[in-house]
Design brief:
The structure is a single chain. By secondary structure, this protein is an alpha/beta fold. It has 2 domains: 6-219, 3-Layer(aba) Sandwich (Rossmann fold); 230-301, Helicase, Ruva Protein, domain 3 (Orthogonal Bundle), CATH 1.10.8.100. It has helices at 6-15, 33-50, 66-72, 88-94, 113-121, 137-146, 165-172, 182-190, 230-241, 248-255, 261-270, 284-302; strands at 28-29, 56-60, 77-82, 101-105, 126-131, 149-150, 153-154, 156-164, 191-199, 204-205, 212-219. A 7-stranded mixed β-sheet has the order 4-3-2-5-8-11-9, with helices on both faces. It is elongated, with a radius of gyration of 21 Å. It binds S-adenosylmethionine (SAM).
């Protein structure tokens, strides 16, 4: 069955009394070359870094199974999480020939991810591969990054995901680029982002209004960035970009009402930054140094 054929998609959905749902960000792939290429990119990177033995992949949002089919042909174990219960009986049929796949009907954002990874994959290396629902791309990526560490090590190898082109550009930006923002700095704490290829709207049913891009986030097994407290790091990053048009000093001092502007100014200059610098000029290591100073100040002032 060609799961990327528009006629096939329409008839499977109508046989099961359902249709594509905008509320779940359902844009199904209708060009078989795209799921093939995404799965190849994901699996080749997995094998290059972890080898082919006990290869595992997590897919978020299998839809009717176009990408899942490609993943089942490559990985030893495939686990999918799909929120839409009307798609579960469809996936039972479209994935019937594979014994290496399980489909879980859950909202991915509500999963206890650490336990989910342990229960489904044990200690095997896991890659993530998905055509993400665009309405929750950032929360899904941040959940995967924040909740997939077991001890100091990351349980995930890489995320090979389709996102909106604009989001891909933000994620791939470097300091000085106008697209560099809180999400860029936060993701760069966990790994390196590479843009792989663009996908035009005509490759989906229904066609989205924007171009998409496939990216890969290659995760650090052990984080090379050192910071005393991650919570402080992420609030400093959020504070630095809370008021984009302002300087770092003004944005941070509007955000942290418990620290005087003078103190923030002192911290910024003590680290060697110009007092008029903007948040988008700071690398992730700069943010780590800044966060350490905020952490020390908060600790001192709690005493
Ligand atoms: N993988 C299919 C493809 O490429 O044709 C479908 C991709 S479609 C862009 C996004 C999928 O994510 C849909 O199947 C949708 O129902 C599912 N989804 C949306 N929100 C979800 C959530 N919170 N948890 C799990 N799946 C979700």
């Amino acid at each position: 069955m060609n799961l990327c054929n528009l006629g096939v998609i329409r008839s499977i959905l109508s046989e099961h009394g359902t249709d594509t749902k905008k509320s779940f960000g359902q844009n199904f792939l209708i060009n078989p070359q795209i799921p093939f290429d995404i799965a190849e990119e994901s699996y080749n990177y997995h094998v290059a870094t972890k080898g082919a033995c006990a290869s595992c992949v997590l897919e978020i949002g299998p839809g009717i199974g176009a990408l899942t089919n490609e993943l089942c042909q490559r990985y030893e174990k495939v686990v999918c999480v799909e929120i839409d219960k009307t798609l579960i009986p469809i996936l039972d049929k479209t994935l019937a020939e594979y014994s290496n796949v399980s489909v879980i009907n859950e909202d991915f954002l509500k999963l206890d991810l650490k336990n989910f990874i342990k229960e489904n994959f044990g200690s095997s290396p896991v890659s993530v591969c998905a055509n993400l629902p665009y309405y929750i791309t950032t929360p899904i990526i941040m959940k995967l990054l924040e909740e997939s560490r077991i001890g100091k090590q990351c349980a995930l190898t890489s995320l090979t995901v389709m996102v909106q082109k604009e989001v891909a550009e933000r994620l791939c930006a470097s300091e000085k680029d106008s697209e560099y923002g809180a999400i860029t700095a936060s993701v760069s704490y966990y790994g390196k982002v590479k843009k792989l290829f663009n996908v035009a709207p005509g490759n989906f049913h229904p066609a989205p209004s924007v171009t998409s891009s496939v990216i890969r986030i290659e995760l650090y097994k052990e984080n090379p960035h050192t910071v005393i407290d991650e919570k402080t790091l992420f609030s400093v990053i959020t504070g630095a970009f809370a008021q984009r048009r302002k300087t770092l000093l003004n944005s941070l001092s509007s955000y942290f009402s418990n620290i005087s502007k003078e103190k923030i100014s002192e911290i910024i200059t003590s680290l060697g930054f110009d007092i008029n610098i903007r948040g988008e000029r700071l690398s992730i290591d700069d943010f780590c140094r800044l966060a350490d100073e905020f952490y020390k100040f908060n600790k001192e002032n709690k005493k």
